[in-house]
Write a structure and sequence with these properties.
heterodimer, A: 128 residues, alpha+beta, OB fold (Dihydrolipoamide Acetyltransferase, E2P), 18% helix, globular, B: 366 residues, Gyrase A, domain 2, Elongation Factor Tu (Ef-tu), domain 3, six-stranded mixed beta sheet, six-stranded antiparallel barrel
Chain lengths: 128, 366
């Protein structure tokens, strides 16, 4: 399941670019690999995240995995529902399980992220 | 993957969409519907676990009891036929080689149930130390172990296996077992388990494993569960996992099992097994973030001195917060609180009494 209207990273985050705001989450593939998610650590509103750098952690029963910033910008909102209901990331990774919203420092260049087709290819190579 | 062992139920698991992973040299089902759902189902209804990776040995002969009594910590003098008991296999220094359950099958006939990762080394060790007229046989390959666990396990067992055999298992008491037969092959039904819930461990000929599994799992109350849920269930009870919470570097006394060391026999490791340099401490962590195996335990309050290491840690699904077991230096183990320092964060932890989860049905009178 790879929505057409999103961009992706090699570390399995997704990015929704809208007017002046970028919403970030993890992909269906990522949540399946992690299994039941029990804890999500996110940056705070006001924090600045930098492309490729660690911005948080997702823990499942069996593993902990870093989140990497897909873009550079200031965090303007985090999904506080996840503090008590991290399972939303499993249930709706592209919807209610979103992680943070960011005001990007500059316009997003789609070439620096993976298109849906490119992300599909990445999953194919990882599956084999 | 090809050099991993597969249980007789392996194809069944794959057909049901289980995620499998290597455990103790076996390709084992880790989860089906998901660890949290399986955990919850076990606490509320009943789950079926494939535990065929564990090892089984038979020891027989007129000196079987005397010979085994010099090898394991179990007090076999007070173990009646058709009862089983938990205990340890130790090295001469008192370090734990394995934890195991000894079943007294008959007057001078025992079954030992050991951890999968230890089967070969345990067998060699015991064979080496067995004296007198006692023969040991490794029946692990021909014995399947299937665990049915959960408050509804009795009802489910009665409605399936019980119906086939024309009997109920209601009278079977905790740590007692029955020797029966299923489809012409020997079957042991033991009221034991590793989840803290009412439950049964079924030992059957490997050739009958799929048949027995399908019979029991067909009950509407029963769902299959993997080793992922088994691990969170056992940790909520504070039950140790060999290789993490028990190892050759620690004695049973350090793991909190000194009261079990009551055997009058002169078993290997006797005396040394009471040495205490560290203690296995139960820790609760506020919040959902979990300590992990290998995290450092620091003294709380300033000094920040490292006093121990986390051996098991997880989010505890039935409790809604994280818990851990850790070996802590004995002189620091009485403190009420600690800091757990992991790769990602420092977590405050408070010493707790076991079990973490106190609503378990394992011992209920039926």
């Amino acid at each position: 399941m790879i929505p057409d209207d999103l961009l992706y990273t090699r570390t399995h985050e997704w990015v929704l670019v809208e007017d002046g705001t970028v919403t970030i989450g993890i992909t269906q593939f990522a949540q399946e690999q992690l299994g039941d998610i029990t804890y999500v650590e996110l940056p705070e509103p006001g924090d600045v995240i930098n492309t490729g750098e660690e911005m948080g952690t997702v823990e499942s029963v069996k593993a902990a995995s870093e989140l990497y910033a897909p873009v550079t910008g200031e965090v303007i909102e985090t999904n506080t529902e996840l503090e008590t209901a991290p399972e939303l990331v499993n249930e709706a990774p592209y919807g209610e399980g979103w992680l943070i919203k960011v005001r990007p420092a500059e316009d997003i260049d789609p070439e620096e992220l993976l298109s849906p087709a490119e992300y599909h290819e990445l999953l194919d190579t990882q599956a084999h | 993957m090809s050099d991993l062992f597969k249980t007789p139920l392996h194809s069944w698991h794959l057909a049901q969409g289980a995620k499998t992973a290597p455990f103790a040299g076996w390709d084992m089902p880790i989860q089906y519907a998901g660890i949290l759902a399986e955990h919850k189902h076990t606490r509320e209804a009943a789950s079926l676990f494939d535990i065929c990776h564990m090892g089984e040995f038979l020891v027989r002969g007129k000196d079987a009891r005397a010979a085994l009594s010099r090898i394991v910590t179990h007090n076999l003098d007070t173990l009646a036929p058709l009862k089983c008991r938990y205990g340890f296999l130790l090295n001469p220094e008192g370090g734990v080689l394995d934890d195991l359950i000894v079943y007294r099958l008959a007057e001078e006939e025992y079954m030992l149930v050991v951890n999968g990762a230890c089967t070969a080394s345990d067998f060699a060790w015991i064979a080496d130390h067995l004296q007198g007229e006692a023969a040991m046989e490794n029946v692990s390959d021909v014995t399947a172990k299937i665990d049915l666990q959960g408050p509804k396990s009795l009802d489910a067992l009665d409605a399936t296996l019980g119906k086939v055999l024309g009997r109920s298992f209601r009278d079977l008491k905790y740590f007692n077992f029955l020797r029966l037969s299923f489809e012409g092959a020997p079957l042991i039904v033991s009221r034991t388990g590793y989840t803290g819930e009412l439950g049964y461990e079924l030992y059957v000929a490997a050739a009958k494993a799929v048949e027995l599994w399908e019979l029991v799992v067909a009950d509407a109350r029963v769902e299959p569960a993997g080793l992922g849920a088994r691990d969170t269930l056992r940790l909520e009870m504070g039950l140790p996992l060999y290789g993490q919470d028990l190892d050759t570097a620690h004695t049973p006394a350090e793991a909190g099992y000194e009261p079990l060391l009551s055997s009058p026999a002169d078993y290997v490791g006797k005396g040394a097994d009471r040495a205490v340099r560290e203690r296995l401490v139960a820790l609760t962590v506020e919040g959902r973030r979990s300590p992990r195996h290998g995290d450092a335990v620091l003294a709380a309050g300033g000094s920040g001195e490292s006093v121990g290491v986390v051996t098991s840690g997880s989010f505890a699904p039935s409790l809604g917060h994280a818990v851990a077991l850790a070996y802590v230096r004995a002189d620091a183990s009485e403190a009420a609180s600690f800091l757990v320092k992991g790769a990602r964060a420092e977590l405050g932890a408070v010493r707790a009494d076991l079990p973490f989860y106190k609503e378990g049905t394992a011992r209920i009178k039926l």
